[in-house]
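Entry 14. Structure prediction run on the chain below.
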Amino acid sequence: MRRPGLITIGLVLLCAGLLSGGCVTELTPEERQAREELLEKLRPWRQEQRNRLNFLSLSLQDGPGRPAILPVILYAGQSGDRIDAGCTGDVIALFEGLVRFLSQDDELAFVIAHEMAHCLHGRGSWVRSGVRQSYSSYSLSEETQADAHALTYMYQAGFDVDIGVETLVRLTTEVPKSLTGSYFSLHPHVLERIARAKVHAAALHGGLHPLTNQPLPPPVQKVTFAMTSWVDLNRVTKESRWVQRFDDEMRAFVGVRLNEVQASKLHLRFVEEQGDRSAAERARKESDALVNKLRHEIEDKQIEVLSQTSLPFHRTILQVTREGIQGDPNARLAQLLDHKYLPSH
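Output returned:
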């Protein structure tokens, strides 16, 4: 998906940045350069995976009665190689090691859906500080219900529930405890969970909710991030008045502040030309403080705009993709955005 502009999954990137911090060992200049080169090579893959995980999450959560969507972050901190996942109640986190281990969308969908179930029907597996609670505190009933809800979310969104069950099996049998963050190794009664998960999957194949035995509506078409490669953000920005409104707002906001920065630089240059070192130093500090203040204002404005646009934009992409890519889908996307979100006159 070509999205080099305004609409990105920016809130998720913010969360990822906040969670990926940690103590960094003092490095030599050569080691720092090597580290930056490696991070530069990793950056495109991580960005793609963040977008992918969030689209999987949105596909699972987008439906009637779910106005609030739990975002997903890719945890790539010091312990990012762990095969682990969790949920604070507000955000779902998947460790980079887990994403590398589970390559299929349906596998990752099961883990995301399982964490969703704990957050929506119980409690998160992480406290807000990011410290994991012990999974030993979960009962068998809580775990099997979370699995049942997870498989139901998968079924409703068109994902393969059999792959969901197999994912539980894989994480139980293929991941040595020394390599995992204990995402499944601490879950109680794993064998019974697997047996019950297979029963839940059988009920879903029959079109029945595994916990209530009530008929379910037919599943929608599965949509993954790869299926949205048709989106041309630059074109939609030009054609959608709703997107253009936010784009114009952001440009105007940034423009005012860039003019302030330019004026500050001109003033600093004038003071420096007067030859008064003390006055020049004061002016330089004032200019630096102003630039830092304006940078934070722009960052806050970007977050505000993203919070208003990201979910409607991606939900509409889901709708167009599920309708089938026929004719001119980008024109259809722009049309739907304006119809659904522009205030009526």
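Strands lie at 72-75, 85-87, 92-95.
Filed with the rest of this week's runs.
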